[in-house]
Amino acid sequence: xxxxxxxxxxxxxxxxxxxxxxxxxxxxxxxxxxxxxxxxxxxxxxxxxxxxxxxxxxxxxxxxxxxxxxxxxxxxxxxxxxxxxxxxxxxxxxxxxxxxxxxxxxxxxxxxxxxxxxxxxxxxxxxxxxxxxxxxxxxxxxxxxxxxxxxxxxxxxxxxxxxxxxxxxxxxxxxxxxxxxxxxxxxxxxxxxxxxxxxxxxxxxxxxxxxxxxxxxxxxxxxxxxxxxxxxxxxxxxxxxxxxxxxxxxxxxxxxxxxxxxxxxxxxxxxxxxxxxxxxxxxxxxxxxxxxxxxxxxxxxxxxxxxxxxxxxxxxxxxxxxxxxxxxxxxxxxxxxxxxxxxxxxxxxxxxxxxxxxxxxxxxxxxxxxxxxxxxxxxxxxxxxxxxxxx
Length: 391
Prior knowledge:
By secondary structure, this protein is an alpha+beta fold. The protein has helices at residues 14-25, 50-68, 108-122, 167-172, 192-195, 247-253, 259-267, 309-326, 330-359, 377-380, and strands at residues 6-10, 29-33, 45-48, 69-71, 76-79, 85-88, 104-107, 127-128, 133-138, 143-147, 152-155, 157-160, 179-191, 205-209, 212-219, 224-232, 243-244, 274-280, 288-289, 292-294.
């Protein structure tokens, strides 16, 4: 075990809470500092890859995850206008539940609640809210975090898990702002009774159009349909993840799609419609700087075309705890963590870009889906509990 005794984590999202839970299990003293005044993970459905599920299950929350998630059915890639099958199969039944041997769909809020409850079960005081970081620093002996309420926190290790606009990254790594990726996304949750007339082609369908894609799948035991549309847009300039959207603007952007798509959009409760711009950062050479480390989107934000953004953050937390328990000194442990994760993250980043270009092809009639990254099993079966950690 290293000499690290206290760890401060900035950000109580999925990556920050996974890291906290893994580190608490390993015996570290952990405090998580969240800027929001009230805890709660916004969002809708996310994909939990098979390896990601096994990583989370290793932290003692396997039964809760299985109860709150659904196995991912076979996914169909369909022509945006005609609904013609381009790749995959139309899966209309419930897939056989094979636990964490396969990927699963879960509501982000449900996963967040499971992680938060598990962290608090070990240490009820581990997570603090209303703590917005304004600066961070370090010396040879400790890292320091400054918060806008005037408080100052010292720790042996400071972890920035505070998203793509990370304050920790800005303080100690680079001050560049994320860049708009030329894509906007819509999301909503549709109750199954409203959605049922538009689900005949299967429970998980990706409709591929000119510069746009539309994905839908079940969450919450099949009670809700998670809907996301992503399309190219050169004019978006707003920030934030939860800008209210209107039914009319969502429909206008997808008006030429199959009636199953437009029907789902029209059926969505108006108050559930959200839009946001997608932003990216160029890769940085290292995610660790002395006693400070970046994790998840703070280190390596990616676009959502493979649904692996949350997976990468969760994997980071599991591998980090293993590295700190394997390598005998702090700097060496963080170097080992970076080395263990770099190839994985870069592979996912490049394959995500490739997937996006493919599913937003200008000519889906000539789409060649046979080489789609989404069919690469190794991308989704990466296991953070077994990846080698080199001393």
